[in-house]
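As the next step, I selected for study a record pairing a protein sequence with its backbone structure tokens, which the following lines show:
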Amino acid sequence: KAFQIDSTFDFSTLQAYQSVCDYFLFDTKSDNYGGTGLKFNWEILANYTFDKPFFLSGGIQFDDVEVIKQLQHPQLFCLDINSKFELAPALKNVELISNFLSNFK
């Protein structure tokens, strides 16, 4: 289940989805569904206290490796990278993705 996150997001609203979702995806709030290529303030993730693992999405780019490493949220399960790793719409830059992943090791 995907949720659009901004500074006013109330994580208690996720309680209703606990028993029916394997993971949550947290993305940047926008007027539309789908990616914006923008980040939300990841500090708000400190307010997420459920045991359900989550995917982090929203404007993640190569230069975010160190910041993501420092998040150290126990439920951060996966990164949803997309437009910042594309050469053109739907055409991924495999070398950039490989380098990004290597920086997590």
In short: The chain has a mean pLDDT of 92. The chain has two helices and six strands.
